[in-house]
Each structure stands twice: as C-alpha cells, then as structure tokens.
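Q: My labmate handed me this sequence with no annotations at all. I'd like to see what the chain might look like in three dimensions before we decide whether it's worth expressing. Could you predict it?
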Amino acid sequence: MISLDPALVAAAVARLADADAARARRYPGDPGTRQPVHTCYVPANRLAADTPRRWGAEALALLDTHEWAVSPRVIEKLRREPIEDLRIDFEDGYGVPEDSVEDADAVRAARYAVAWDPAPPWFGLRVKSFDTPRLRDRSIRTLDVFLTALLGAAGGLPDGFVVTFPKVTDVVQVEVFAEILALLEARLGLADGAVRFEIQVETAQAIIDGTGRLALPGWITAGAGRVTGFHFGTYDYTAACGLGAADQHLAHDACDFARHVMQVAAAETGVRISDGSTNVLPVGDAVLHGWRTHYDLVRRSLSHGFYQGWDLHPGQLVTRYAAVYDYFRAGAVADAARLKAYVEGSGGAVADEPATAQALSRSFLRALECGVLTAEEITELTDLPVASLSALARREPVRPSTLE
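A: Here is what I predict for the chain of 404 residues:
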C-alpha cells in the first residue's frame, strides 16, 4: 500500500533527467586504462636516439656504485621499460633559441620518437606557454613542425602521444589551444580529437581565477574533451605564491592546497592528476641524499592519491620505482584480506563499502600495470581473477562464484 500518486512522482523526478545526463557527461569516471607512474622531462636539445635506454643504464650504474637495496623487479624494470612517459621539453628547460634551431630540434626529436628502443608507452612534447605573443607563436610553430615530422616518420599518430600545455593563466588560453589542435588535425588528416593534452597547474590563476572561482573545472570544459591530465608545477607555483627558495618543495602546505584543489576538480571526470618534481638530484656526493629525498616525496605523493609524478634525472628512476613498488607491496596482504571479505560478504574488522572495494581493486590493477605484482600473485592474494578486479573497479557486483 502506498500513499503517493505514481503519476505525480514520475512527473517530479522527470525533472532530474537532464541533470542525470549532464552528470554522466561531466563525470564519466576513471577511464580504467593504465596510467604512467611518472613523466620524465628531457630538454629537446639534450635528446638523443638512445635516451630511454641511456636513462635506464645510468640508473643501473648508480645502483652498482651506491648502496641502496631495491627489489629485483626494480632492476628488471630499469632494463625492460626504464621510462614510462617521456616529455620532450621546448619550454623552461630548453630556452628560446633562434627559430631555425628550434625547428631543427623539433624535426630531430620527432624522428627520434619513432625509433626509441625500448619505446616508452607514452611520449609527447611540452610546448612554450601562451604568456606573450612571441612565446605563443613559437609554441604553435613548434607543435606544427613536430607533429608534421612525426606523422611523416611514423605514418600516423602513435599511441600514447600527448602534449603538455604549461603556465596557463586563463580559460581562454585553453580554448584557443584546443582550437589550434583542431586546426592541425584537419590539416594533417587526423580524426577530430585525436591530439590530446595535459595542463600544467603552476600558476595561482590555475587554482582561483580572477572572479574568485575555482579555475580548473572551467578548463576541463574549455578543453572540449581533449584534456587528459593536470600536472602540478612545483617551482613556478611556489614562486608565484611568494615562497622563498628554501620553502619551494613538494611537501610544503601551499603545494598540498593546490594538489587537493586539482584532485577535487578532476575527480570522476576522467582527467588524471600528476604530482610535480623535486630538484634535489642524486648526483656527485649527494646521490644518497637525493635518493632519500625523492623516495620520501614519492611515497608521500602516493599516500595523497597522486600515482604519477615528474622525474628530472636518470637517477630518480631508481627511487621512483623503488617507492612505487614498496608502496603497493606494503599494503597488498591487508588490502587482499579486506577485498576478499567484501566479496564474500563475511564482514570483518572493517566494514567496507563499494567505493572502498573500487579503490582496493584499482590499487591491485595499478600494481599489475607497472609490474609490482603479476596477475598470478594478485589472484593468489585476493582469490579473484584480474577480470573480477576490473569489474569491481567499475563498481560492478562480483560474487565468489565468478571463480568457479
């Protein structure tokens, strides 16, 4: 027996249809694809045909000469896939040379990018900012030269290609950059939306715009479906906030505030977030100090939900992978017990909900994707096949019977 008139209820809730559709478009959720654990930054004039292999070799050489205990899987990773995401830099780390020099560097970099062995799963370039007419004209030209050469060398747009757009201060810059990409696609015969980009969050205006509103949600909209990530810029941001050099580091509260804004703005939109870098490098007599600093910062980022960061030096590959491997392995047994209890409905010391089961599953999938755990090890720990973990990560119901 009910009291409400079904027709009146239907009329009332019908008003929610547009909101439901808008929410589904705006918040499609995590794409469920692999995310790189880092982006390696290499100035275009220092790029070489063997850059990925050389970075791995330099990291292994440092391990040979300095005492730092790492898992054998870290060593295997440095040999097999030393760089997951390589960003060819035409901005701060590169400078503003003559146009002919930058044109030549862009062509050479594009040719290298199709010949790397081992090839990073992701790669791209960071163009100059749109701060001034001179810089934005050069930014667009470099992107045009690079893409034209890349397509000529590869015969098409390689998988994993992405552009980094730095020092954004206004939503109009994002709109114009998206328009430029559309023009390039049309000219080069690419599908609409084929070229995607990540935005570096490294200005105060990237957090709060001139009207007092959060800027990043509007930037996602302005990107017209092309924005894949927000990447934090440690040093430009802390300098913009007026911090002194000694306080310009990832663990500063100012950085935490910016990252939390990034996290909330990107949540469930499908836009990934990446932490920034540390300029404390493992070089000379400071290798161990550089490793300790980097390791601690990577672990801190992971605990804040930033599963990707920027690395500036081959030696940082050692502590990037060591920190990632230690982080995922440290919680694997306890996480597996919670996941099993959730699926079996047996309860336990923690009453987990679907959102937590989703997070636990994603953690195991991340560990699989970067080589921390094998599929067999994950199934042994969780009593679940990888397909079931993928279903849980999408908040789909999974029952113990899926193992039969």
